[in-house]
Design brief:
The protein has 427 residues and is mostly helical. The chain has 16 helices and four strands. The protein has a four-stranded mixed sheet, with helices on both faces.
Length: 427
């Protein structure tokens, strides 16, 4: 026990001298969590707080064009900037760059006339089917009716563009429905429909209650912090490979392994010391990042982190994640021949496992082949366990099926490390 405690003290002193390693283990993950959470949160704010700039060029002189303008404004998704009706496509594109607008909509000439003619045709078909009138004459559609045009910046992501396209289609459908209801009411009653009745008919939609899945019954909507802080806490744990892997390589190159063989001890004691020392470091990393998310983020304009109710489950998940990270770092150090190999391979492999594990790209967005490979990444199982606690409000028993594969991967890494030490005649 005295040998182990002395070795742990020695490892802590070596660690404290490694200023660059400490910065990599603490400063970089904290900076990543701060920057990426701020970027994602600004995206959510962009959609939720009417900050999407939209240039609207209304070339139509009828009532439907004005209604569509009002319908788009009513969606609450856009900050509308009117454009002169005589503007050409080139001028619209120039104004988009000048005003830093991501999208613009052009309502074409004859938009009202085409909607009105379409509404009359639909009304005539409906009345004929109901036997109210026979062979009603069809309204003539304008021959040169241009479609509604949506201009967008090439940098706009496809999913975001589809969301805005759906919103605009909903606004157009609302205006078209009003035209049909108005034409049908006028044909049946030979008078204009009251505004209140028109609103009741057109806006009679079933409400949708959006409820996040939660094992605890909570209805708290997850935010950017809830997604990013657990992910980058895991990333920070595994990035101990930079410091720990290099430490193992230095000891091999300096002959520490050989000297330990001449002493009444075993290198396994030194390995156990490193695991305990760096396991405490990984727990400290998680505690620091979670604390920053919970108590610092609200003071800098970011949503705060809601800690899970099962703190014991959080500690156990963090312990297993940290142990897996430390085991992987030691394994890299054992097989690497130089510090450059340990640092290069360790950093790149962590980035690859983070990408496969869903830390960089969500798992549901990956192709099927990568979804199968995802299960090989220990970061995936750690992230799923954290998400079960943070996002779903679960407890330890709810994330056991994520912890067990992570524990199994850790044992496999430990066995590979022991085989490597024996093969190199180091133990």
């Amino acid at each position: 026990m005295q040998k182990l405690s002395s070795t742990i003290i020695k490892d802590f002193r070596i660690l404290l001298r490694d200023k660059v390693g400490l910065a990599m283990m603490f400063a970089m993950p904290i900076l990543l969590a701060l920057v990426i959470t701020a970027v994602q949160n600004s995206t959510f704010e962009l959609v939720n707080h009417n900050e999407v700039k939209l240039l609207l060029c209304n070339k139509d002189t009828g009532d439907a064009g004005r209604q569509l303008y009002a319908a788009i404004e009513k969606t609450g998704m856009f900050a509308i900037m009117p454009v002169d009706a005589q503007a050409s496509p080139e001028q619209v594109a120039s104004l988009m760059h000048k005003n830093d607008a991501m999208v613009s909509v052009v309502i074409p000439v004859g938009f009202s006339a085409r909607l009105s003619a379409t509404a009359k045709n639909i009304t005539a078909k409906a009345l004929t089917n109901f036997d109210f009138q026979k062979d009603s004459p069809k309204a003539v559609l304008p021959e040169k009716a241009n479609p509604l045009t949506l201009y967008y910046h090439p940098a706009l992501q496809g999913s975001f563009r589809q969301a805005m396209d759906g919103t605009l289609k909903g606004a157009v459908q609302l205006v078209a429905s009003k035209q049909v209801v108005r034409a049908l009411y006028t044909a049946l009653n030979e008078k204009e429909i009251p505004d209140t009745l028109e609103e009741e008919i057109v806006n009679n939609q079933a409400p949708i209650d959006q409820v996040p899945i939660s094992r605890s019954g909570s209805r708290n909507i997850p935010n950017a912090t809830q997604h990013n802080i657990p992910a980058w806490a895991i990333f920070a744990m595994f990035f101990v490979v930079i410091s720990l892997g290099s430490s193992v390589v230095r000891e091999k190159l300096s002959g520490s392994f050989i000297r330990l063989k001449t002493l009444p001890t075993n290198y396994l004691v030194a390995l156990l010391s490193k695991q305990i020392t760096y396991l405490l470091v990984t727990l400290l990393q998680a505690a620091v990042i979670f604390s920053i998310g919970a108590w610092v983020f609200p003071h800098i304009g970011l949503p705060g982190l809601n800690l899970p109710s099962d703190m014991a489950g959080l500690i156990i998940v963090s312990l297993i994640c940290g142990w897996c990270a430390v085991s992987y770092a030691i394994c890299v150090g054992v097989f690497a021949g130089t510090q450059e190999q340990a640092n290069g391979f360790g950093a790149v492999s962590i980035l690859i496992m983070a990408a496969l594990g869903g830390l960089i790209v969500p798992g549901f967005a990956m192709p099927d082949m990568l979804k199968n490979m995802m299960k090989l990444s220990p970061l995936h199982w750690g992230l799923e366990a954290y998400y079960g606690l943070f996002l779903e409000g679960g407890k330890l028993k709810d994330v056991l099926m994520n912890i067990l594969p992570l524990f199994g991967i850790t044992i496999i890494i430990q066995l590979i490390t022991l085989l490597g030490l024996k093969r190199k005649n180091l133990i």
